[in-house]
Amino acid sequence: MKVNKIEFNMMGKYEKKDDLSEFAFVGRSNAGKSSIINTLTNKKINRVSKKPGCTRCINTIKINDKFYIVDLPGAGFAKVSLKEKKRFNKITEQYLEESEHLRTVFLIMDIKVAPTNIDIMMIEWLKSIHRNFVLILNKVDNIPKNKLQQRKKEIFKKLGFKYPSITVSATKKINITELEKFILSMV
Ligand SMILES: Nc1nc2c(ncn2[C@@H]2O[C@H](COP(=O)(O)OP(=O)(O)O)[C@@H](O)[C@H]2O)c(=O)[nH]1
Ligand SMILES: [Mg+2]
Question: Could you say which protein family the record assigns here (predicted)?
Fold first, then answer.
């Protein structure tokens, strides 16, 4: 993605300042959320945006004064008690429920191990609040080409539905332009 201008902001609570479209990224820790955002924007955003004490903040990344990438905290999700497991963390939930400018949620999954219980819970939760979402099946470079269709079949069979998805590799830059096109078509 050609990025001429980039602006970072961190919020401990969702507050909206303008009418630009937003695209949120969520995912189980280690699925590659940061890598995808970095590859998409050609920037090492994590290095700039990770402030100590703000792991529970929403990071917004304003691109070219046109739209926002919203990096949502989901880490710790796996560690919470069983009772709480159906929930994202509070700030992520509040944002997903309240944002009026959120076009799509990208749910980052590791294609090799997907769907994990956490992936399934996130999908169920997004459905329950009627949010549009697209599954990003990341790390496709870990799957042999001749096994890819089978792997995807297994994933959708376990999910019980063929949700919209984009298969990518952040590190090998595979299909990232598909993700880019999708975003730009909805800005
Ligand atoms: N093989 C492979 N590894 C990846 C890919 N994307 C991310 N990773 C690795 O997965 C690990 C977690 O990535 P990171 O972006 O920090 O995940 P996050 O916790 O979801 O933000 C890192 O070691 C990355 O290098 C990918 O497309 N292919
Ligand atoms: Mg990360």
Answer: Belongs to the TRAFAC class TrmE-Era-EngA-EngB-Septin-like GTPase superfamily. EngB GTPase family.
Cβ-contact 67, 183 below 8 angstroms: yes
36, 134 contact by CB (below 8 A): no
**What ranges do the domains of the chain cover?**
6-186
The residues, ordered by sequence, that sit 6+ positions from 118 with a Cβ below 8 Å of its Cβ are 28, 77, 78
Q: What are the pLDDT digits (tens) for 60-109?
A: 999 999 999 999 987 545 444 555 555 567 788 889 999 999 999 999 99
pLDDT digits (tens, 9 = 90+) for 110-149: 999 999 988 998 898 899 999 999 999 999 999 999 999 9
Nearest CA to ligand 1 atom 11: 30
CATH number for the domain formed by residue range(s) 6-186: 3.40.50.300
CA of 30 to the centre of ligand 2 (A): 7
Model-level pTM greater than 0.90? yes
Q: For the chain, how many helices (H) and strands (E)? A: 6, 7
Instruction: Quote the ligand 2 centre to 155 CA distance (angstroms).
Output: 23
Residue whose CA lies nearest to ligand 1 atom number 12? 30
Ligand 1 pocket, Cβ-based, cut-off 6 angstroms: 27, 29-35, 138-139, 141-142, 169-171
